[in-house]
## 1
Amino acid sequence: MTPVDFYAFDAEYVRRLCAGEAEVEEHFSLYFEDRLRLKLRSARYDRTENADIIQDTFVRALEKLRNGELRQPQSLGAFVFAICKNICLERSRPRKLEPLSDDYAPASTDDAERDLLETERARALRRAVSQLPAKDRRLLIAYFFEERPKAAICKELGVTPGYLRVCLHRAKKALKRRFLQKFDEKQKSTDEEKDH
């Protein structure tokens, strides 16, 4: 760990940090960077992702501190670690949501039918993405397909990191709704063709 001077986390420390005093900001980043890196060791992220999580934690922590969201200055450490934990949870959510469920696949399909079904799903997904509003489409493509850093996406869209999460949630919800609608329509027409 990098040795850092001792500062008590009190109202004065938080005030100086919010005021942007270089000495306190440097202490804050040095003190918490090592501790957050240790905390993230057990997570399955690479070094770059760890660095992104740490930077995102600092940005959000400072934003929340400046908005007066810390009630007890002596709890600054727990406050920062809670923010880091939330960021890790957010990052793990898209990975869990990405795979599409097999609810639409008949249990008795063989490999060729399964491949055809996956192709149809991919087409339905592309159609659904293309029908989203331009802002939602840009956001989903930048975040999931291009895997651009959140900071770059925020800058491009002119939103804060906190509001980016809201935008992402709404865009994913809209995409899911359109995808399920398109995929259901395609399945119905395929089933009708088989019946005739």
Note: Residues 95-100, 104-109 have pLDDT under 50 and may be disordered.
## 2
Amino acid sequence: MRGRRVLTAARAAVAVWLGRGAFVFLLHGRAVFEHLGRPDGARITIVCAELAGAILFLFTRTAIAGGLVLSVVLAWAAGFHFAVGEASRMLYVFLFAVLALAGGTRALAAQENG
């Protein structure tokens, strides 16, 4: 029971942090994509995918699906940052955190279901 609460709190913290970052990027990221010559529609698509993944990651029943969506978005973002010469370290940290928490959620569910 305690493990479930810790996992839920950790997933919530990561989901809120990533969701907040996506929302800020939605509001203030147009100039960055414009400067790099990338279409604004791509930025909006990435933001929507990250927000959807973060919402799914909040709930135990949908945490695996949310983790998958967030993993894809974070891996893409890390590669994109690397390609344009920007720092991507924190994206990798969040990617590994999402993978670990999704794996922990899956393991706990398997243990509870026997």
Note: The chain has one domain: 2-109.
## 3
Amino acid sequence: MSRRSIPALVCAAVAAVALAIPVMAAGLKTIKVHDASFSPGKVSVRHGTTVKWQWASSLTHNVTLIKGPRGVSRFHSRDMSRGSYSHVLTRKGTYTFMCTIHGFRMTVRVT
């Protein structure tokens, strides 16, 4: 490795750490999955936030992205009656989620 490539590697490492800091600082937002609703039904979070849906119901539900910002691939939890499902939202925009079993919805605005 030449002496010239060492500063480039150091710069790349510093840039990677600097880019990761805002994502780590974004945090965690917990949504409860009740018998017929998500609670809260509307939230705003920073990009890079982990959204965690926590089941608070004895019924089987799922969390399915039905509409999101351009370029975001659809994703969903499995059908569950207890436990949790988490997903990191990295792209800014509005996400609409639905329990496809019961039809209730919620929105997450990512800034």
Note: Residues 69 and 93 are 5 Å apart (CA to CA).
## 4
Amino acid sequence: MTGQVFTVAGGKGGVGKTTTTANLCAALAAAGYDAVAVDADLAMSNLAQLLDVAGDPTVHDVLAGDADVEATVRSHDRGFDVAAGTRDLEAFADADPARLRDAVVGPLVERYDAVVLDTSAGLSHEVTVPLGLADAVVLVTTPDVVAIKDAAKTGELAGRVDGETAGVVVTRTRDDEATRQVLGELGDRVLAAVPETPAIAGGAVLAPVGSRAAQAYSELGARLLGVEPLRETAGRYAVAPPEPDPLAGDLEPAVTTAPEPEAEPEPADDGEPADEGAPAEADVDAGTAAITEAEGEAPDTADPGADAPEPAAGAGVPDPEPASADGEADAPAATSSFDPDRERGGSFIDDGDDDSEEREGALGRLRDIFE
């Protein structure tokens, strides 16, 4: 029995195609599947470099007829393999994308349960070939309008070459109106919603073990294989106590501690005593907090100038998870790809909704792919 081929595409650069490729393989490997990530981004190969498994020969050599694909495969310590590419310009010029099916994918599907192809940005011949040979195409987009438009174009191209689009992975999601609009409009076509994650935003390609991003990618693997859930039997990835995110300490805390009491003010220069009947400002703040807590509400210690986003009716955005002692939220027993990671930071998507109408039109075009 041969394995399945999944092509990860999206049109726009920087939306998380390479990250999705690597994490999908990590999730599948943790569940005991033999998975290989193939660097099919021939112009801007970086998968092997990001995973620290670069070397020769490469996929480019295979596509030039100078090597067998088995020689390009390196093992990653997360349990999956990588067929590495190269960033050499001459190697790119010699690589023939038309050889991808027979020289690269053909031998690998005989050896692996899942062959995951990382593709380049844009619409070109080197993107068209992976779209046409896949068992399922995974479109990747952020809630950004331009990314959605490019994902729709890629999906339309996949349809023209008889590619089967399985659904959409929405990356860098947050608790804001743009994310809610995307998830609501696409509905069950969303294979996974990956929350904004500091470690990934900081340059890491693999999500921290036990993080909500890892849980989202695990759900992606389950949806693609048609199993629920993706049970981990061979490693630790999503179903594990969360590891501290190395960049989480750079974020501002959601609730700040009360300031130290200020020293008693000096008497006024005019010699007039201070009004002893007026309560000090710190006492007012403390009293307000006490009254608020007594009424069952948390004291408002956030920046008064910041506008908190209001959840849309029926959006299904959950309350934040309770934090554990190490500052990470406890991983829930069952997760949904529609859970934005509230404790994560980042500023990729504005809370404003100025692009709502344009986004709605782009999402309509993306939905049409599945109809």
Note: The chain is about 30% helix and 10% strand.
